[in-house]
Amino acid sequence: MNLKEKIEDLNQMILSGLQMDAFDKYYHEDVVMQENSKPPTIGKVANREREIQTMQMVDAFHGAEVKAVAVGENVTMVEWEMEVTYKGAPRMKICQVAVQRWKDGQIINERFYYSSN
Predict the structure, then answer these.
(1) Mind listing the pLDDT tens digit for each residue in 13-55?
(2) What is the model's pLDDT at position 27?
(3) β-bridge pairing 27-35 and 91-103
(4) Nearest-angstrom CA–CA distance, 34 and 99
(5) Which residues are within 8 A (CB) of 43 and not within 5 positions of it... i.e. 6 or more apart?
(6) What is the Cα–Cα distance from 74 to 76, expressed in whole angstroms?
(7) Minimal CA–CA distance to 98: which of 85, 86, 81, 73?
(8) Closest CA relative to residue 113, chosen from 101, 99, 100, 102
(9) Secondary structure of residue 87 in the 3-state scheme
(10) What is d(CA 44, CA 99) in angstroms, rounded to the nearest whole number?
(11) pLDDT band at 117 (very low <50, low <70, confident <90, very high)
């Protein structure tokens, strides 16, 4: 499976509600993940816990759409548009770009860029 096929499979798994299965399949044991300019979270175990905590904050998930995908040399970028209601908050639209760097067929680094307004 080439990088384009992998990122398309990962995105489809996420859109199908299989976020944690996608995480287990495509993320490297030494993955480093970062939200905008916040300090990075290091390692698959810590990032798995962070993902679970984020999902537990969601009251309702209204949908997501992949707007664009770019594939380069060991790097992919995905533009996402999502609608979500977090617990105690109004429904909101989130637009973000996720940049993934790949090593040994898995994501070793991922950074999310979005407006914090």
Answers:
(1) 999 999 999 999 999 999 999 999 999 999 999 999 999 999 9
(2) 98
(3) unpaired
(4) 10
(5) 29, 30, 31, 32
(6) 7
(7) 81
(8) 99
(9) coil
(10) 17
(11) low
